[in-house]
Design brief:
Layout lengths: L5 H5 L4 H6 L2 H8 L7 E8 L3 E12 L3 E14 L2 E5 L3
Antiparallel strand pairs: 1-2, 2-3, 3-4
């Protein structure tokens, strides 16, 4: 995401996330925040699930600089870690 390589980022989506979000839909939903540096505010993990809160700052034409916190979840399935996209 930070490199704006949305095709590569899509490969990390869980199978369920891919089923609900075809590639073009994923790109349209993530393009706004893609490429923005993020700071990890917190992270917690269990055996097959990790959650982290990221702080992302971007510029909005009307609001100016906006900082938001985004929570993301990763799950382990069949030995692989997958990003759960909540777009």
């Amino acid at each position: 995401m930070a490199a704006k390589d949305f095709d590569k980022a899509y490969e990390f989506l869980s199978p369920g996330s891919k089923a609900a979000n075809p590639l073009e839909l994923f790109k349209s939903k993530t393009r706004v925040l893609g490429g923005r540096p993020a700071k990890v505010r917190s992270a917690s993990c269990e055996a097959d699930k990790c959650s982290e809160k990221l702080e992302i700052t971007f510029f909005d034409r009307r609001l100016g600089e906006v900082t938001t916190v985004y929570e993301e979840t990763w799950i382990k399935d069949a030995g692989n870690w997958w990003f759960v996209f909540n777009g």
